[in-house]
Amino acid sequence: MRKLIHIAPLLMFVVLVLALFSFLQRDVDQLNSVLIDKNFPQFSLTKLENEDVVLTKNDISDFPAIVNVWATWCITCRVEHPFLLKLKEKSEVQIYGLNYKDDRQKALSLLAREGNPFKFSIYDKDGLLAIDLGVYGAPETFLINADGIIKARHVGALTPDIWDQKFLIHLQ
Amino acid sequence: MIPEIGHLLLIGALVLTFIGGSLPFYDLVLKKSFSQNYIRSLSILISLLVAVSFTCLIYSFLVDDFSVIYVATNSNTALPSYYKFAAAWGAHEGSLVLWILCLSLWLLGYLFSKDSVNDHFSSITFAVMNQVIFAFILFTLFTSNPFERLLPFSPVQGGDLNPSLQDFAFTIHPPLLYLGYSGLALPFSLAIAAMVTKNIDSLWARTARPWSLLSCTFLTLGIGLGSWWAYYELGWGGWWFWDPVENAAFVPWLISIALFHSLIATEKRGVFKNWSLLLSILSFAASLLGTFLVRSGVLTSVHAFALDPERGLFILWIFSYFIFGALFIYIFNNTKTQVESTYSLRSIEFGFLLNNLLLVVLAISIMFGTIFPLLYEAYTNGKQVSVGPPYFNFLILPFAIGLGLLQGIGLFLGWSDTKDFKFFPRIIIEALTILIVINILLYFLFGSFNTGSLIACFIFAWIVSGNLLDVFIKKRTFNKIKSFLNFRLGAVFAHLGIAFLVLGVGVVSTYSSEKELILSVGDSYDLDSYVFEFEEMTFKQGPNYIADVANLKIKEDGRLIKLSSEKRNYLSTNQVTTEAGIVADLFKDYYVAVGENIQGDTWSFRLQVKPFVRWIWFGALLVAIGTLISSIKHLRKGI
């Protein structure tokens, strides 16, 4: 009986730690649930490159594609920028940008300086489309498959590893 | 160059702590005990490396080195220098380095205190502390390196320090809290050393006691400042939200209090040894669990720093290693000898036992209420349940009453039995007298009588008479009072602090008035007997923000008070924060927070009058002072 009392704290911690581990395992997928298996939401916003052009959902028409939420004030976006450029060269996937809460001139000069991986960017100054997408912040990337359905979402910088693990499986 | 030096120094500290963490094993292998000769110089070296590394990080902030990702995300050129300095620990990565620095300073403090003698016990303590520091440096370097560069395309301008953190209280809140959190590693290490060297005795208890007191001091200050910050910065006028991250600090605080009380009994009477060991482990576990909750991003709250399951996983491994390790050692090395000393139900031992039970059950219930929603969500596929303030408020009430009642009589109880219970009727009479006086006072201040705060007022009266008043009445001569205070000064301060805290909480939650409304310039509103008038809206240009400033007048019985509340827009990140306008006197705060602009000159407002709210933080300050006094007293005495 006395022995049991001494082991009890350990057993309680085992339960707690197992529960927390299992929670962490789940948590990874949880962010993804909102728009998965749905169409891209409707929107009507100007083009970053030309403020007279109004874009809608129908302009995102070449699939498969990714929509990348980015901004000049977002430091992590710079980290993933080279990878997006590489992706543009190597992959069939179309890359659309969603320029988020940004300044048009700053955004254009950044693209001119560091290269433009995007087919075009949607200029979302007030974050209207971002709200519909449930964006937490920049960068975020949505994957749209060949049928125009959103299949995956990634919060944070896109890296080769994440591309292989999270996105590529939906493209085959 | 400088960031690289910082990075290298941190790696150097990693290597040294690895060596330090395994020192006793060399002793074991070589069958000589030589490690004790090196622990002091090693720990000086480790502290130095970490301190200089941290200085490198601060330097990178001061010179705006935006090629460092961490600097670029948390600072910009427009940020005032003081906040650049504080930004070094304003976000996840840098705060970890600060955490490591705190740990190494605690170790240094212990090794150079009078308690530490050149023996096996010290070197085991040293080794465990080194393992803790090692684990945290590893965590920092692998998952959250603050020195990481962004090359070759480094930005010319950075992001910004989270605007709501650009505030004086909030720049010193994290260091204090971290000192408290990390300080609990020391009683933990001492407990391991006691078990491994089979020295579970009053000497160990005496060594551990001042350090757990000191951790409690810093936790109290950290939590108190955080609460004060939330009060004036978040614009809700609340001072405690039962936010998961607040709970994550509150739980270790409760357990540290249980710990140093239990250690008194272990030191003086040799009882509760295993319990004190367990509490030492539990307090560090609570501190690590708190870290896990804050750093893993499993919580969404004002404090959520990072959304990174990898970090959570890493901390969970650290947690498992230390706590399982400690509990395994505990299973085999706890004291098996039955204690012969007996104590009656009227003894101070039994008082401590009750105090500990209440504190630990309360702590575990709060922890449960914090984690349960997470687990529920995980096991029901995303269904959410919220365990909110009503649960916690309901929960804490009986515990607060129980602990309050104990505090009033605690100082009069004797070891093993209390012979004289004459103090009891005296305290009751004194407490009732104070209670009546307070309520008359409250009636004159607020013009109404409120039964809701009666319990809080009674607890206050009870603790004050038990800790101070009765002593003064009973021990009439100055010398007797002096010797009592000499002996109990820390405890008296801390207990009175709790009394003020309870009174503040009780009064503010029953006598407050609050109104959310829309006002145009020139409008006024009558909140109870206070007239709030919206005078004008002005514009203000800050160093890195612009602000709309609402100026108000408050009229109360011919007194005229002016205050202003700001709606700030921080330019580089477009974040909007509210600076509440607060005017305080001894008995109440006037609190105005400006909300949204409805149209033109019309804005939404939150007006509040919060009586006695300052007394909560005054109480917390007294608790911190009290624990500090006790801790210093014991440290100076040595063993």
Structure description:
- The complex is a heterodimer of chains A (172) and B (639).
- Chain A is of the alpha/beta class.
- Chain A has two domains: 1-33; 35-170, Glutaredoxin (3-Layer(aba) Sandwich).
- Chain A has five helices and seven strands; from the N terminus they run αβββαβαβαββα.
- The longest helix of chain A is centred in the first third of the chain and has 29 residues, at 2-30.
- Chain A is elongated and about 80 Å long.
- With 639 residues, chain B is of the alpha+beta class.
- Chain B is 63% helix and 12% strand.
- Chain B has 19 helices and nine strands.
- Chain B has helices at residues 2-21, 23-30, 39-62, 69-74, 81-87, 92-111, 120-143, 168-183, 185-196, 202-233, 244-269, 273-295, 309-333, 348-379, 389-410, 423-446, 454-474, 478-511, 613-637, and strands at residues 513-520, 524-527, 530-541, 545-556, 559-570, 575-579, 581-584, 588-599, 602-611.
- The two termini of chain B are 47 Å apart.
- Classes of the chains: A alpha/beta (172), B alpha+beta (639).
- At the A-B interface, helix 1 and helix 2 of A face helix 4, helix 12, helix 13 and helix 14 of B.
Task: Summarize the amount of helix of chain B as a percent range.
Answer: 55-70%
* Largest beta-sheet characterization of chain B: 5 strands, antiparallel
The CATH topology of the largest domain in chain A corresponds to Glutaredoxin
State the end-to-end distance of chain A. Answer: 59 Å
Gyration radius over CA of chain B: 26 Å
Brief overview:
With 172 residues, chain A is an alpha/beta fold. Chain A contains five helices and seven strands. The two termini of chain B are 47 Å apart.
